[in-house]
Amino acid sequence: MAERTQKSKSSRSSEGATVAEPAEATTETGEKLKAELDDLLDEIDEVLETNAEDFVKSYVQKGGQ
Amino acid sequence: MALPKVCGIETEYGIVVRGGENNPVSASSMLINAYVAATMRERGRIGWDFEDEQPANDARGFSLDDALAPEVETTLVNAVLTNGARYYVDHAHPEISIPEVTTAYEAVRWDRAAEEIIRRSMIEATSLLDDGAEIIVHKNNSDGKGNSYGCHENYLMAREVPFGRLTAQITPHFVTRQVFTGAGKVGCELPGRPSDDVAYQLSQRADFFEEEIGLETTLKRPIVNTRDEPHADAQKYRRLHVIVGDANMSEVATYLKVGTTAIVLAMIEDDVLGDEWLLGNPVAAIRQVSHDPTLRQTIMLRDGSRATALEVQWGLLERARKYELSHGLTCVGAHTGPDILDRWERVLTGLERDPASVADIVDWVAKQRLVDGYAQRHDIPAGHQRLKAIDLQYHDLREDRCLALRAGLQTLVAPEEVDTAVDHPPTTTRAYFRGRCLSKFPDEVVAANWDSLVFDIGRDPLRRVPMMEPLRGTADHVASVIDEAQTAGELLDRLGQ
Prior knowledge:
The complex is a heterodimer of chains A (about 60) and B (about 500). With about 60 residues, chain A is mainly alpha-helical. Chain A has three helices and no strands. The radius of gyration of chain B is 22 Å and the shape is globular.
């Protein structure tokens, strides 16, 4: 059973072994992503329904297909 | 060679009225009527023709004289739009079935048009309500309380493909494609298990599948649905009715969902897929995969070995690459096919290295980023109601509330392309004939459905034009005839009807 896993993985893992990005670039990317997420979370705070908890609690649908 | 993979998407949307009477059936009717009234004021409404509906059918052959199948709800609102779509009330939900298309790209384009139609409908309908009341529509598949509604896909298949083989071979894809098609869900809705047993899962729908195969769609849902209602020549065609997917907010996710499935189905039709990835217990596996955002758990294959969902997907992609070389991909679109394979490979690579890297493509990853970020910022525990609110609002189709619109998802279709698809049909299928006739001869078309149009040209009995071939009635075939005909009668004469 391990054979299948190896078979499917091995063809890719050789080429998948990429050179690690320089630490500096990673940190930069990480900080950029974090800043983006912060902006996004600010926006969510703004647009999230004021009574979000009540709204989601009372959100009941009839089952469909 | 595999048939062109004519396909479509039908979405049942969640609906609530806030600040007014919350009856989903009347709200859905109001939504649709308001849209139809606003857009077709000049034209009058064209109803759906139920003559050919046979949702309970499993027999070969086709007869125009068959009685109505009992489960069709003929009394509810039902409209046919000039873009070839059907807009109707189904099981207490508004539903849009997009027109038949031939590529995943077109499926995304008309699926996006359907969202725009809903947005416009919400605005129109809300303007009819008392001050402060509002109709709100979500493109999701679950209310978080055990009630689910579908986003179905349909694919044209050759009738001669043995259904047993089709079922067995497509199931591994249906179970594992969730890794990029899942729309994400906070909590668990498995009967008998507390919601917070699963903090976050890949799919909206996976909890609701209880059988491997069957005819049901509303209870004991099967991974492979056996409804045999081809809406086309039943001697030649089958319509595979896929009920196992999530409604995607991400355009690329919809594209991958439809595109990869069309390719896997083409491989099955040409009998080159083989049985390597058959699953041991698909129902258990679909939940396991959904409940594992780490993507590391393995599922059991039929031969007793185990593989992760990503490994199964890599295996299917590898087959698809070979299939491209041996058969070509024209059946899913000569340009679209290779692009699907490239994007498929990229999404699997991204998911394998770090799911966060595909937060701009995969809905469950995009939503998880919001949910986790919010939980961290406000220091609230997993499964909290506010996180469920974020989950729900991700799917809210109101532009000023929709979180998916703010999540940084890539888009595929330009806004003007979406805009024209709201009113115009695809040019590549019989939907073209349907849409153009509705738009040019609104007074003469008295009813329409997937495989026929009924005209009243003022003389003789009503005239039914059958459209049993999904690839006839395209712009190439009929555009000039429709352009030149001054009246519907003239059109029918020219078509030899």
